What does this fold into?
Amino acid sequence: SNASDNFEQDLVQLKAGLEAKLHEIRAAVPKLYAVATVIALLPTLLMVGHTLLQLTINQRTRTSLVGVANEQASARMARWLFQARRSAVRRRLQVSGAMGQAGWALVVYGILPAAMSIAGTPIDKVVGEKDFWRIPVVVGFFLGLLALFPTDERAIRTICTVFLAFYLGLAYLYAHGCIEIANPSVPSVSHRSQCQRFFLPKIVVHLSAAAALVATLPCG
It folds into this structure.
């Protein structure tokens, strides 16, 4: 009887602790997503600031060009170049700006549950399973890739380098796991079979992807 009573009290305390923890997480989630919203809107905020700065610079340049009387031809050429550059930037924003912003926002919102789980404060009970939130991350990543132009040499080179390191890292991890499973001190046919069927194909695929990306590094 005493053991039963103690069990009931422990169960009540455990449920109360879980409810208190869940209440704290629910109170923290709006703050987390408020910070995530600011981070997600950073590209737009930076672009607005850059646009305002360009407008100020163009206004000053236009004023200085109007004051020069002896350089009418060069002033017209400079004005034309400024207008052409502004038009190119405007067209680029129309084509890729919204796509890049949407992709970045999806990545930020999708990665938040996994980041909080790694930090030791999982929010899955409030926002859903973190595995489900991987889908927006993948979609956002590919939207970001689609926002790139073929002339973005530095960005393309950077992405190729990141993917090369990523695939080499995965190949190393799978090779390390295969070596541990095939340890001679623990001989087992099933372990060797698991290494051959699970690890080796992934090692080959990731090394092949890394080898394909090596040729894209000196782009430009």
Summary: The two ends are 79 Å apart (CA to CA). The mean pLDDT is 75. The chain is about 85% helix and 0% strand.
